[in-house]
Amino acid sequence: MRKFFSNSLIVSIFLFLSKLLGFVRDLLLASFFGSGAALQAFLVAFRFPEFIRKVTSSGTLTQIINPYLNGSINQRNNKFIITILYFIALFLFIVTLLAIAFSNIWVGIYAYGFIDEISVLALVKSMFVIMIPYVLFNGVMGVISAILNSYSKYVVSSLLPIVLNVVMIIGVVISPRFNVPIYSVAHAVLLAGIIQVSIGGYSLIKLIGKISFSGDVFLVKDNRAKIFLRKLPGAFLGTAILQINGLIETFFASFLLSGSLAWLYYADRVNQFLYGVFGTAIATVMIPYLIDCRRDKQQFFKTLAAIISFTLLVTIPAIVGLFVLAKPIVISLFYYGKFSLNDVDFTYLAMLGYLMSLFCFVVVRVIVSALYAQNKTTIVFYISLVSLITTICLDISIVNFFSYDKYAFVYLALASSSVAFLNLFIQLWVLCDFSFKLFIATYLPFITIIKIIVASTAMVLVLKLFNLSDSYWITLSMFGRLKSIALIVFIGVCVYLVTILLLGGFKSLKTLK
């Protein structure tokens, strides 16, 4: 358990730092641009590059690549790395060129909700062309990070996402100097991609030596590379379902009340904080443990059960705490400058809509890693396809019947949560060989769950002692808000940890070594 916990902690710390800087970035975006047309145009243009960023930083590629490398550095593995790196880079380069060449079509489809707003469409197109090369840079960086993670080099790969937030923060701060301020942020995204891939490439060369592409790379002589490239599209869809849902959601949100895109974006950022820190860290670190014991079915199930217990121990109290502190968190992070009280209320509602899905997506990340360790990539693909089709059908229904309802954006968030539950239900069913009786007997630690509920209740009772009213929080300064929310969260975490330790909640993790 100690090594698993320490590796998870390393990844979590850097992810926490990245998410923290991400909140600073969003705080500045909210302050400088509010929920106005410029920001909405940026969010639409940035959605596809942001989609690639989320996939590459979520541990998705690590889940796919890790089983092929098994943590050993040798000539055979190096050849595999060079082959997949070349083909993925080539594919992304072609995608980037096509996206630039046909940017009018992309904007016409994806920003269709703004079809009557010519100035917004022009902004979307110009920023899309500026930022689309980030797809190439970040995609290559994501593959490099996955390779580094496969060799337990977690620090560099966890540091790389921080670069984007730092450069974007600088871009927002200097934006008033631009004739069109939002362009500063768009150029910052492009610059961040160049810096990220440069740092990642240097780290990879230090790990495996000089990278050289020979002519026979086109022949793909490595059978593992052939299998990997053949399975990659399905595996990618299977593990990136959360990010794909977000991409679809942005499209449909553009048809709703002005501001819906921004409210959903800010709410999603808060939820992604917990998902990123816990779900990504656990899923990234757990893969080698499951691969090591996948031939011993009994040990595999024991290890997976312990990992699920650990996931419940950290995720449930985090979600409960977020529910209790939702409004103070939104006010503390976003209520500045052009971000109004109306924006606060609507972002809060969207956050509650997403909150239901958070637990599901974190647990699904763990289950998908287990299914991948068992080479059940095809099943994951079909489950994700069902979820994707369901998402599209629900979103179309919402836009069709509720487009003039001011709360329609909340319905989109709730639809995302509903699909998350469906996805979790099917994944569990498949994992347990289509027997929930086996799941309950193997993976559902009732005693641990009771202890978590007791400890979470104790945490909530303590949190309720603080003044959490809107009228109090909006009167505080930025420093006062951030200091207060940090103190409350710290006290809540301490109360939970002390209670769960006294109850012996960590005893279920003894399987992890």
From TrEMBL:
PANTHER family: LIPID II FLIPPASE MURJ. Keywords: Cell inner membrane, Cell membrane, Cell shape, Cell wall biogenesis/degradation, Membrane, Peptidoglycan synthesis, Transmembrane, Transmembrane helix, Transport. Involved in peptidoglycan biosynthesis. Transports lipid-linked peptidoglycan precursors from the inner to the outer leaflet of the cytoplasmic membrane. It is a multi-pass membrane protein. Belongs to the MurJ/MviN family. Signal peptide: none annotated. Its main location: membrane. InterPro entries: Lipid_II_flippase_MurJ/MviN, MurJ. HAMAP family: MurJ_MviN. One of its GO terms (biological process) is lipid translocation. It holds the Pfam family MurJ. The keyword Cell membrane applies. GO terms for cellular component: plasma membrane. NCBIfam families: murJ_mviN. The chain crosses the membrane at residues 32-48, 84-107, 127-148, 155-174, 180-205, 234-266, 272-291, 303-326, 346-368, 380-402, 408-431, 443-465, 485-506. One of its GO terms (molecular function) is lipid-linked peptidoglycan transporter activity. CDD domains: MATE_MurJ_like. Pathway: Cell wall biogenesis; peptidoglycan biosynthesis. It comes from the Bacteria. It is found in: Cell inner membrane; Cell membrane. The keyword Transcription regulation does not apply. It comes from Francisella hispaniensis. This is Probable lipid II flippase MurJ.
